[in-house]
Amino acid sequence: MERHSKTKAVFIDRDGTIVHHTKTFVVRLSQLRLFKFTPEAIQILNKAGFLVILITNQPVISRGLMTPSEMDILHDGLFKRIARRGARVDASYVCPHHPDGKIVPYGVKCLCRKPEPGLILKAAKDYNVDLAKSFMVGDALIDVVAGKRAGVKTIRVKTGPGHERLDKMYSDVEPDFVTNDMKSAAEIINSVS
Questions:
Q1: Known catalytic residue: 15?
Q2: Distance in angstroms (rounded) separating the CA atoms of residues 99 and 92
Q3: Is residue 28 part of a domain?
Q4: Catalytic residue status for 139
């Protein structure tokens, strides 16, 4: 089978980037509150020809609060909400693992939990993505580290709290861009691509 030319993608974090961060574990769609700018930001990326792919750590699975299929249903509902506002998220890749998790087989150290680049690399393989023309956007330095390890440009947004403990570990890591929110990140991507 002949491979088509590579595409470009924007990998986006979920909590604190496209939805409001919550202090409790998210297990229901009603807990996901979109930032008002999220659909417009994703529209900008759609129109610019980028795939938009969600990349998210979800330790609620390793804690037994949700199953992977329940997480898929939750994300499907979130993407339908975004689609009703005229924007498209093309896929989601979820790390269900956490080293302290209690549910077999998810209570392990893995290569897909950010700051590891595994989810980005898997999505890039699945969608034939040119990593050199792609971006990772998130509110935490672990998003930036994962992006850099995968070979994409990185943007840190200021709409979420980041990841306090891990951000200290990676305090020497600099994103390619820092901006206020996902909409301004989309505008940066559009202007430099």
A1: yes
A2: 22
A3: yes
A4: no
Choosing from 13, 139, 143, 167, which is the catalytic residue? 13
150-153-157 Cα angle (round to 5): 110
Q: How many domains does the chain have?
A: 1
List 15, 139, 143, 181, catalytic entry: 15
129: domain CATH number is 3.40.50.1000
- The per-residue pLDDT for range 153-182, each reduced to its tens digit, is 999 999 999 887 777 888 899 999 999 999
Burial of residue 20, with CB atoms counted within 10 A of its CB: 0-12 exposed, 13-18 middle, 19 or more buried: middle
Q: Per-residue pLDDT tens for 57-97?
A: 999 999 999 999 999 999 999 999 999 999 999 999 999 99
The Cα 66–Cα 25 span in angstroms is 10
What type of residue is 55?
I
The residue whose two tokens read 């409790």 is: 24
Rounded to 5°, the CA angle 143-149-151 comes to 100
Tell me, yes or no, whether 51 lies in a domain: yes
In a domain, residue 167? The reply is: no
